[in-house]
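quick one: 3-isopropylmalic acid bound model?
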Amino acid sequence: MSKTYKVALLPGDGTGPEVLREGVKVVEAAAKKNNFKLELVDYDLGGERYMKTGEILPDSMVEEFKKFDAMFLGAIGHPEVKPGILEKGILLRLRFELDQYINLRPVKLYPNVETPLKDKKPADIDMIIVRENTEGLYTGAGGFLKKDTLQEVAVQESINTRFGVERCIRYAFEVTKKRSKHNKLTLCGKTNVLTYASDLWQRTFNVVEKDYPSVKGDYVNVDAACMWFVKNPEWFDVIVTDNLFGDIITDLAAMIQGGMGVAAGGNINPEGVSMFEPMGGSAPKYTGKNVINPIATINAGAMLLDTIGESQAAKDIDNAVIKALESGKIKSMSAGKMGMGTTEVGDLIASLI
Ligand code: IPM
Ligand code: MN
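yep, here:
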């Protein structure tokens, strides 16, 4: 009997449903080829639900998600909802409550994809960023004093626990070892200024490193990392960093790999349920136009399959994406400039599985 995996679908806002439809199409094709099944359950979350019912994310839903093998997200963010409400109330809450403590971002330049970096080829842009996803400046620790007065004080604290830092670094060493590319893991921090937080990261890194003799440990300050991403991205293999630095450098990395049309990410709880998503937002102005690029979502689908243990199916998707891009039929990664529609790109990739 073939195996069945339960996957929660969260289409969300804007173009989220359109790209998720294509992601599901391709994941289903890979499942069929590899002889396993997916039980898909739709969850209606996002701006529309919030405006209609005032509900952002019911507690019961969070509990239900824990029973799934994985979650597949389109996009969160609605132009008529104040920025932050849905992002915090859905995306960040799920990361925290499901303890998805890793944000995994493969950064790979595919063939025929344009990078703004002159003279850089696919072989030069191929790294993985491991971002801590539940601590740092994202915990909401801090507060105001004398709010709305001229003496106002605002404090936002970066929380770094030895436990949280160590499990993230350990995960990154495992990724580096398994990938076995250059066997180099770069810790990205700011040890020259953040003499407490980055110091804890560096000391923890030095300890964990001893368990991985085959991996070479390396360090870069976050500001310098931004320079080298642009000048010498080929220097990087795997990078591990905290939540906010990771947020920032993964957007820079998305641009050098060809933009939000291709960048995918996973919010991973290695011991629980993980959630996969394209990095681009809900792109409201393109909603319903069939012009948005679904490749990032398709790549997120491959990451989902890899994480639940269907690595061959994940490879099949990656190869189909490469073939589709090599065919030259997709003219650009940008919305509206692909030379074909969202559904056609999905069809093309699914047909190549
Ligand atoms: C990301 C996003 C989120 C973050 C936002 C939407 C809260 O930018 O996944 O990188 O800052 O983590
Ligand atoms: Mn971000």
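The radius of gyration is 20 Å.
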